[in-house]
Amino acid sequence: MSNGNKAAYLRGIxxxxxxxxxxxxxxxxxxxxxxxxxxxxxxxxxxxxxxxxSAGEYQGFKMIAAQSSVWMVILMTAVINAxxxxxxxALCQKLSPSVPLWQRLLLGxxxxxxxxxxxxxxxxxxxxxxxxxxxxxxxxGWALGTLLGVVMGNVLPANVVNALGVGLYGMxxxxxxxxxxxxxVVAGVVILAMLLSFIASHLSFMTDAMSVLLITVGLxxxxxxxxxxxxxxxx
Length: 235
Description:
Blueprint: H1 3-36, H2 41-51, H3 54-65, H4 70-80, H5 83-92, H6 101-110, H7 113-120, H8 128-153, H9 158-182, H10 184-200, H11 208-226, H12 231-234
C-alpha cells in the first residue's frame, strides 16, 4: 500500500470510529429484536456482517418471524435498501477515472448512510481506500452490537430487554423527523404511510410483507411523480 493510500485508510479509520460507536448502540437493540424474532446469535451476526442496513435487517427479521417466503424477504430488502444504489452512483462521480471497476464495486458494498456522508464530504477526488478504512471499523461495530444484543437478550430481565428494544424505534424516528420537519411533502408521505400501515394491519388478506412492499413502492412512486425535485433544489 502506497503512503497516500495508507494515510487515506488511517484517516478513514479515524473518521469511522464515532460511526462504529453509534452503530454498536443501535445494533444492540437490533440484536434484541432479532432474538425476539427467533434468530440465533450466529444468524443475526452474519446478517449484520453481510447486510449493514438497519431498516433492511429490521424488516427482514420481521418477515422471517412472520414466515414470509425467501423471495419476498429478498424483494422487500432490495426495495428498502435501494437508496444505497443512488448513493453509490453519487460517490462514483467523486472518483478519479483511473479507479478500477473492482474498487468501485467494493466501494458500493461499503456504502451506508453515515459512510456515504463522510465520503461525500471528502475533499477533492475521493480515494476509495478512505471509505474502506471507515467501513473496516464501522461494520464490526454493527455486527458486534447485534451479537451482544442477542446474547444479552437471553440474560437481561424481560423489562430491561423491552426497554432497550425501544431504542431501535428511536433510531427510525431520528431518521424520519429531520427531513419531515424541513419538507412538507416528506412529512405528508410519512403521515400517510403511517395511516396506510395502520389500515393494512387490520386487513386480514394483507400480510406484513405485502403491506410494506405496496406502501413503500406506491408512496415513493406517487411522491416522485407528483412532487419531483427541481434541478435547483438538487444543487
